[in-house]
């Protein structure tokens, strides 16, 4: 049975699909009162993993003296030209706190943005954040051999690039990947201005710059997620990725279709009673 409150479900269903700033703000306002507090979770903020001002990460952990914790690094969205690891006091610290309370290290990281920094800069930043956390895992009680990379929206596109791109080969560096509501293939008929600012608009580059083109080069386990009310242009790439992973592995991939949710509400659920996303995700990570 869904733990999504009735008033939340009714509001989201009434708003329908989209990925605009007004829907983002309305959805976060709906979820903010449902979030657990930050009590008991230590946070270390704005730690540089590179020289650029946006190459920073936040680490959330419970000071329980335990070592060898799985590290989950979350890469947020923002349409390739914006976004932040800590949009306000609630989001996306809720993600870091959730994993900390689950006995892991929760990490949220920002990356360089288009149009100043185009492909493949953000994928390279994901790699730099992963490598920094692996090198510094013991400082926080983490296990460098158990790093999970997790992206949503544009952040999911960057994670997919990191995992599968033949120059980055991030799938060789992490335990598994989680990608939710992202863009994984470039096509002229689906090219939007913000996407072109990052990936470019030259058709000749689309195949090379599409993560979907390179799935077969890595055997990294991947968990896919998509929201019922995601925009269609972010729904179809998930099922294309599921097809590519199925062909790669000879079996169906892990995939969550998040009933009643929109593009923004899926990440808002972390730290609330609604565990439709977090519960199967945790099961996937713990089974690695």
Architecture overview:
- This protein has 288 residues and is an alpha/beta fold.
- It has a single domain, classed as Alpha/Beta hydrolase fold, catalytic domain (Rossmann fold), CATH 3.40.50.1820.
- The protein is built from ten helices and eight strands.
- An eight-stranded mixed β-sheet has the order 1-2-4-3-5-6-7-8, sandwiched between helices.
- Helix 4 packs across helix 5 (154-164).
- The longest helix has 18 residues, at 232-249.
- It is globular.
Query: What spatial form do the alpha-carbon principal axes imply?
Result: globular
How would you characterize the largest beta sheet?
Answer: 8 strands, mixed
CATH architecture: 3-Layer(aba) Sandwich
**How helical, in percent, are the residues?**
25-40%
The CATH class is Alpha Beta
The CATH topology corresponds to Rossmann fold
Count up the helices.
Answer: 10
Cα-to-Cα separation, first versus last residue: 26 Å
How many DSSP-defined strands? 8
Mean pLDDT over the residues: 97
How large is the share of residues in beta strands? 15-25%
Order of helices and strands: HHEEEHEHEHEHHEHEHH
Round the Cα radius of gyration to an integer and report it.
18 Å
Q: Uncertain spans, ≥5 residues at pLDDT below 50? A: none
Task: Put the structure in a nutshell.
This protein has 288 residues and is an alpha/beta fold. It contains ten helices and eight strands.
């Amino acid at each position: 049975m869904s733990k999504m409150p009735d008033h939340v479900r009714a509001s989201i269903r009434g708003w329908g699909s989209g990925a605009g700033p007004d829907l983002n703000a309305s959805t976060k306002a709906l979820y903010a009162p449902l979030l657990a507090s930050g009590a008991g979770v230590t946070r270390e903020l704005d730690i540089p993993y590179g020289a650029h001002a946006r190459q920073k990460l936040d680490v959330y952990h419970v000071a329980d003296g335990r070592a060898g914790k799985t590290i989950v690094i979350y890469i947020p969205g923002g349409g390739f030209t914006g976004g932040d690891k800590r949009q306000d006091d609630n989001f996306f610290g809720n993600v870091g706190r959730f994993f900390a309370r689950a006995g892991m290290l929760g990490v949220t990281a920002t990356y360089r943005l288009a149009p100043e920094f185009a492909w493949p800069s953000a994928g390279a930043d994901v790699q730099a954040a992963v490598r920094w956390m692996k090198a510094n895992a013991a400082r926080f009680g983490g296990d460098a051999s158990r790093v999970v990379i997790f992206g949503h929206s544009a952040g999911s596109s960057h994670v997919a690039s990191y995992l599968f791109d033949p120059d980055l080969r991030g799938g060789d560096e992490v335990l598994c990947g989680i990608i939710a509501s992202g863009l994984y293939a470039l096509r002229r008929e689906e090219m939007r201005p913000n996407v072109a600012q990052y990936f470019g608009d030259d058709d000749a580059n689309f195949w090379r710059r599409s993560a979907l083109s390179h799935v077969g080069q890595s055997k990294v386990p991947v968990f896919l997620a998509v929201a019922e009310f995601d925009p269609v242009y972010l729904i179809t790439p998930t099922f294309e990725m599921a097809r590519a992973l199925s062909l790669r592995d000879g079996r169906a991939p892990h995939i969550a279709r998040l009933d009643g949710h929109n593009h923004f509400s899926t990440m808002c659920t972390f730290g609330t009673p609604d565990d439709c996303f977090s519960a199967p995700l945790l099961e996937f990570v713990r089974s690695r």
